[in-house]
């Protein structure tokens, strides 16, 4: 199912998205009682998707990113594939939702898009064995690991380059009906102003999702709602103020954001 977090009339709730844009009345959201990290019930109270504002589908305590997990992407930036996964963080203040603006940071003149499959954690977990990885995943969403590339090169470590405000769009919802096997071979695409810039498949990952979750949880506890960004295919490039960037992942949907000047 597609679980969305949304606001309507000043209230924030979770709901299950039903239907497709091609339906006569369009998709609707069935508001749920409770939250998606435990057993919940559908209320039967439905609102048109067109009448709500979609929010980031989760509010993560932390976003854990994986760098250079696609060989062609590593090569296009002049890097080797690392011997172990490169792990970095994006703070909760970097997270925005579908349709939210991305403010161009004042300290950079080279901001790049990075389309990524985002794994949403469903339960608290630590030292997860490979055979139990499926049990700790709620579902998947689209992510855009927006990066100040010049700051990344200049500062060596990536905290400011990848952690600035609005640098982690997520959405439009969490798709829970994807298992690990299918998640390992999904099409992923990024467009800027309607022009295709990235096109790849998650099967091109150097290390699959199972290995990433095992590696991360050897060191830290993941909490419900935490997000793991799994890396980006080749084709990254610059964004400018006024650009509209969209990440589309097979079986999930499309996440669209516009770049604005920081006020």
Briefly summarize what is shown:
The protein has 263 residues and is mainly β. The protein has 5 helices and 20 strands.
- Helicity range of the residues? 10-25%
In terms of per-residue confidence, which ranges show pLDDT below 50 for 5 or more consecutive residues?
Answer: none
User: How many E-type strands?
Assistant: 20
Distance between the termini: 38 Å
Q: Could you describe the largest sheet, including whether it forms a barrel?
A: 12 strands, mixed
The helix/strand order is EEEEEEHEEEEEEEHHEHEEHEEEE
- What is the structural class? mainly beta
CATH architecture of the largest domain: Alpha-Beta Complex
CATH class (first level) name of the largest domain: Alpha Beta
Enter the CATH topology name of the largest domain. Answer: Fumarylacetoacetate hydrolase, domain 2
CATH level-4 homologous superfamily of the largest domain: Fumarylacetoacetase-like, C-terminal domain
Number of helices: 5
Strand content: 35-45%
């Amino acid at each position: 199912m597609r679980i969305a977090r949304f606001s309507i009339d000043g209230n924030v709730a979770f709901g299950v998205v039903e239907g497709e844009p091609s339906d006569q009345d369009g998709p609707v959201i069935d508001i749920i009682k409770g939250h998606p990290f435990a057993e919940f019930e559908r209320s039967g109270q439905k609102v048109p998707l067109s009448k709500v504002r979609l929010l980031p589908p989760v509010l993560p305590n932390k976003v854990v990113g994986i760098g250079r997990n696609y060989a062609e992407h590593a090569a296009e930036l002049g890097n080797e594939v690392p011997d172990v996964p490169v792990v970095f963080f994006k703070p909760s203040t970097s997270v925005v939702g579908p349709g939210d603006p991305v403010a161009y940071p004042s300290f950079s003149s080279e901001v790049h898009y990075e389309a990524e499959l985002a794994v949403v954690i469903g339960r608290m977990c630590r030292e997860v064995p490979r055979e139990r990885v499926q049990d700790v995943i709620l579902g998947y969403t689209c992510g855009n690991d927006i990066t100040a590339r010049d700051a990344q090169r200049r500062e060596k470590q990536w905290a400011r380059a990848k952690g600035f405000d609005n640098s982690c769009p997520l959405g439009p919802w969490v798709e829970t009906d994807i298992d690990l096997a299918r998640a390992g071979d999904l099409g992923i695409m990024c467009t800027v102003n309607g022009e295709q810039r990235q096109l790849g498949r998650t099967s091109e990952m150097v290390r699959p999702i199972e290995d990433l979750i095992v590696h991360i949880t050897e060191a830290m506890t993941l909490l419900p709602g935490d997000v793991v960004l799994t890396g980006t295919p080749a084709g990254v490039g610059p964004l400018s103020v006024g650009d509209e960037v969209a990440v589309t992942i097979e079986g999930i949907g499309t996440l669209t954001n516009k770049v604005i000047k920081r006020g």
